[in-house]
């Protein structure tokens, strides 16, 4: 299987290219490390650290939890509004 990213045959070449880009690139976001791709078994460049990736996954999990809580609160509010309507119609 081949990835769409630029591939390097080994870690040495990938790391040398990272070093070159750090010195010469004017991009705002630059690669900071290389990694072995499990899909294509070649080396790619990454601009995030493993720590950044874990932190992002953590935030995504928290966001999902908040979405669930908001949905539950919305359903509770909807239910309470219905009860209030019924009570006000009886009086």
Provide tags for this entry:
91 residues, mainly alpha, two-stranded antiparallel sheet, 2 helices
Q: Can you walk me through this structure?
A:
This protein is mostly helical and 91 residues long. The protein has 2 domains: 1-47, no CATH class; 50-91. 60% of the residues lie in helices and 9% in strands. It has 2 helices and 2 strands; from the N terminus they run αββα. The longest helix has 41 residues, at 50-90. It is rod-shaped, with a radius of gyration of 25 Å. It starts with 10 loop residues before the first helix and ends with a helix. The mean pLDDT is 88.
Describe, in short, the structure shown.
With 91 residues, the protein is mainly alpha-helical.
Q: Rg to the nearest angstrom?
A: 25 Å
Shape: rod-shaped
How far do the termini sit from each other?
Answer: 70 Å
Order of helices and strands: HEEH
- Poorly predicted ranges: none
- Across the major sheet, the strand order is 1-2
Approximately what portion of the residues adopt beta-strand conformation? 5-15%
Q: How do the strands and helices of this protein lay out in sequence?
A:
Layout: H1 11-24, E1 33-36, E2 43-46, H2 50-90
Antiparallel strand pairs: 1-2
């Amino acid at each position: 299987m081949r990835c769409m990213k630029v591939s390097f045959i080994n870690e040495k070449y990938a790391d040398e290219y990272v070093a070159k880009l750090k010195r010469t690139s004017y991009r705002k976001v630059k690669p900071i490390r290389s990694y072995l791709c499990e899909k294509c078994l070649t080396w790619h460049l990454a601009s995030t650290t493993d720590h950044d990736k874990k932190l992002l996954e953590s935030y995504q999990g928290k966001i999902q939890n908040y979405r669930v809580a908001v949905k539950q609160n919305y359903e509770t509010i909807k239910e309470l509004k219905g009860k209030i309507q019924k009570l006000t119609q009886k009086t």
